[in-house]
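retry 2 of 3: previous attempt timed out while embedding zinc ion. Reduced batch size to 1 and resubmitted. Inputs unchanged:
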Amino acid sequence: MMRSLVVALLVAPRAVAASGLPPAQYDRPYKGHLTIETVANVAAVRAVCGLAKVNACAFHGTGIDIAVCRIILPKDKLGDKLLMRHELGHCNGWPNHHPGIRPYPQPAP
Ligand SMILES: [Zn+2]
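retry 2 succeeded.
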């Protein structure tokens, strides 16, 4: 009962897929109540998120009500720190249309 209430308060992600890091003001640890939910694969992520082209998503509050966030990602991406920073940026209030997105750092040659 409590679980469904919390989920109902969260905003469904609506953005198009994008890869990169959030601007510096959103690229920080999330201080709210975070739930990380792993699913079997990208197809399952897309079903839960309701989006066709994403590899992960974050359901989060808006405005000042960003105290709860739920990240959905495939289990094989659980250790992907860059993807997590992207989704945590959304938890911190980064808008879903990704203003100010920064490219992921290139791996060392
Ligand atoms: Zn995003």
